[in-house]
Amino acid sequence: ASKTNDLAGDGTTTATVLAQAIVREGAKAVAAGMNPMDLKRGIDLAVETVVADIAKRARKIEKNSEIAQVGTISANGDKSVGDMIAEAMEKVGNEGVITVEEAKSLDTELEVVEGMQFDRGYLSPYFVTDSDRMQAELEDPYILLHEKKLSNLQAMLPVLEAVVQNGKPLLIIAEDVEGEALATLVVNKLRGGLKVAAVKAPGFGDRRKAMLEDMAILTGGTVISEDVGIKMENVTLDMLGRAKKVSITKDETTIVDGAGKKKEIEARCNQIKAQIESTTSDYDREKLQERLAKLAGGVAVIRVGGATEVEVKEKKDRVDDALHATRAAVEEGIVAGGGTALLYSLKALEKLQAGNDDQKVGIEIIRKALTAPARQIADNAGADGAVIVGKLRESKDTNWGYNAQTGEFVDLMKEGVIDPAKVVRCALQDAASVSGLLITTEAMVADKPEPKEHSHGGGMPDMGGMM
Fold first, then answer.
1. Are residues 238 and 127 in the same domain?
2. Are 90 and 15 in a shared domain?
3. Quick check: 465 pLDDT over 50?
4. 446: exposed, middle or buried (C-beta count within 10 Å: 0-12, 13-18, 19+)?
5. What is the DSSP pairing of strand 299-304 with strand 109-113?
6. What is the distance between the alpha carbons of residues 293 and 290, in angstroms, rounded to a whole number?
7. Which residue of 50, 122, 338, 390 is surrounded by the most CB atoms within 10 Å?
8. H or E stretch covering 286
9. What is the pLDDT of residues 266-296, one digit of tens each?
10. Domain enclosing residue 40, as ranges
11. pLDDT score of 92
12. Domain holding 86: CATH number?
């Protein structure tokens, strides 16, 4: 479920229901004396066929209204959320950076700001400030851009002391931060003396240099490099970049609203455009275009408002889910929802040839599992799941299905009951992957549940297993 959420941002319940169905039938087959490896081969064969069938049936979405519709459904029918996501995607492009944060007011609003995102996360989980979402959020930080590795603490002390006196957070972006330098940053962060986070600079070699230079122009700072005669000991606050906000997850860093001058950013963009035109290498051109998009594309910020903290948190989670699902829909298209996309893939398995009898059982396990989500949805709605699934299997129309909300059989696509194809695909692949492991190893390792009454406070929340 966690992997499905990471890849597609949704579909965790589907993945869990499927995994349970596969493991239950798989365990019975193994107990009956069948070869677990052949069962797994049969399961993998069937999953491959179903995935190809879902991709064939998925309908691409291009229109803004369709993007809004997917967002609305994923946000539990909240049309305003769907419209806002569609507008954000229109402004920064489908691949653009969209972040969701809590507003200080009652209204939910959309703003596009100068910003940049790159694929490097925090160097230590101890830098996290929001343990629920495992994110480090720095408001109005200084940004130190360093070209080389940082391991010597002595050299960093002058700049760290200057930042502490100023009372602002600090983000360090360097080739790497290690040894006593990293240990000291972590200790200071935990003791509350310094709000700090460190990330590796993106790219390698000359491209890393160029991207650090891009960040320096975006944030109004200077890249600390001995090539240009700046030593770490001599760094002053006016050499550091500034930004309104920085968000860091385990995989990504987003710098929002850097303090760089607009003219300098435009000049840098024009310089990159000239390089794009003059380069003969397709690879270089692609990387230069990536840099240009990061520098010029901006970041759309959806600020979620509400009357109470609980309402804002709940709505923010909904917007996050809707955003992930919408991105997934744009990537791979949409299919009918309510578990029917998997159910109608049963037809694709009819012609599938197995290598031997045990593999045939593996295919049969997936065939049974494919009905589980639709059955579960009907059961949850108070209907008889087996009867509903039986009726659906008689249908020739793959868009026809059971609307659990109204209790009627309808054209799900027309009614707007849809799923992103990527969410359905990831749920099935991840459920089959983990179930295959359980069937072939016949064992799993789980955390021993701790007795509630003996749990004491203290320690950092959500840091278990991080060491």
1. yes
2. no
3. no
4. exposed
5. antiparallel
6. 5
7. 50
8. helix 282-296
9. 899 899 889 988 988 888 887 887 788 777 7
10. 2-59+334-441
11. 79
12. 3.30.260.10
